[in-house]
Amino acid sequence: MLLILTVFKHKNKLNMQSLALLLFAIHLALTGRHSNEYFGTVVCKNKNISEVTAVGMVDDEVIMYFNSNTLKVVPRTDWIKKIEVGEYWNRRTEHALAILKAYENTLHNIMDLFNNSDIHTFQMMYGCELEDDGTTRGYWKFGYDGDDFISFDKNTLSYTAANHQADIIKDKWDTDRAKAKYWQQYLENACIEWLRKIVRYGKDSLEKKSAPEVSLLQKYSLSPVICHATCFYPKNITMTWKKNHEDLNEDVEVSLTFPNVDGTFQKSISLSVKSEEWKKNPDVYRCVIQHVGTEIVVTLNENNIKSNSASDNFIVKCLVSITVAVIVGCLLAFTVFAVKKRLIACKKSREVKSQNSTVYVKGSVSDALLLSQLVRVSCKKKCVPGPNRPSPSGA
């Protein structure tokens, strides 16, 4: 907006119509919902921080990575390396280490509250979202051993505790108005401003689209019919089963959305219906997929379904792909925020140091991102690649 007003001031011939066109062009550059999010996981053993992993993401793309082995925030995409130079990443590293140090005492206090001294995990999630109409949102959440612990409301500058133990920490944080103000300002200003910048410069990568490939699969005649969509980007997709154009809610199970190794995604929705029923009523059942404004409808009939047979290897490959994806998805949830316990074989507990202090966390699910490399999808044709996302290996 400052740029627009400057142009208007120095170019007297620029009329309101030209200004409107300029505003519209900028609006188009930012069209769609975008998000800037950070996910961090800290593993503590006997009250010592032994492992830290974090990622920063814009939309569905990992753009930065941090762990306790390197103690550095590292850019993960070529296009973001061109936007931000080396000094910027040094500042991000300092910020990451500072936050970890700031929350180290909190982690110890939480373990004391639960009377725990074994292996435990702490997760932090925070970020902001920008809609195409200019609406913004921001959130900050803290978890313990996979359960919600404390969340922050930037509008009221207040915290919400998820359990009795969290109430004690909440009461302490409520007295620190400076911290609450910091997070409010960050989520409403710095986070959004940086997101706008990234979306403008990374537009080609972030707004790249890949249509889903859809298959109907049934292992045996008594098995559920699986509508499987794969190779799509971006991540957001809606899948439903319909009977006579009416949505089916019973006997329907929807999977999570899982990553593929090429940066695209896969998802499935199953319908428990006997083969005899849909064969007697062809074209009655339909799988409907909505993705990036496009609707794909696949009718359940003998011509479209692939069943298990010795001569049909495709179904076997796809079912294996789905199975692996489900396993990876479970581990994803296990790593981020949906586990009761993180059962891991910890490295020898060591103290991570940054100069004269101990570590930080900033962001995420890097373990889960490593696991995503296990997913390999068998497509009818090669997946149209989405944005190439380098894996965290070697970070």
Automatic annotation (TrEMBL):
Q: Which residues cross the membrane?
A: 314-339
What SUPFAM superfamilies has UniProt attached to this entry? Answer: Immunoglobulin, MHC antigen-recognition domain
Q: Which PROSITE patterns match?
A: IG_LIKE
Q: Key word Glycoprotein present in the record? A: yes
Q: Does the keyword Transmembrane belong to this entry? A: yes
> What keywords would UniProt list here?
Glycoprotein, Membrane, Transmembrane, Transmembrane helix
A GO BP term, please? immune response
One Pfam family this sequence matches: MHC_I
InterPro entries according to UniProt:
Ig-like_dom, Ig-like_dom_sf, Ig-like_fold, Ig_C1-set, MHC_class-I_related, MHC_I-like_Ag-recog, MHC_I-like_Ag-recog_sf, MHC_I/II-like_Ag-recog
Gene3D superfamilies registered for this protein in UniProt: Immunoglobulins, MHC class I-like antigen recognition-like
Ig-like domain: which residues? 212-299
One Gene Ontology CC term in the entry:
extracellular space
**The family this protein is said to belong to:** Belongs to the MHC class I family.
Q: PANTHER family this protein is in?
A: MHC CLASS I ANTIGEN TRANSCRIPT VARIANT 1-RELATED, MHC CLASS I-RELATED
Q: What is this protein called?
A: Major histocompatibility complex class I UXA2
Q: Which organism is it from?
A: Triplophysa rosa
Q: What is the lineage of its organism?
A: Eukaryota, Metazoa, Chordata, Craniata, Vertebrata
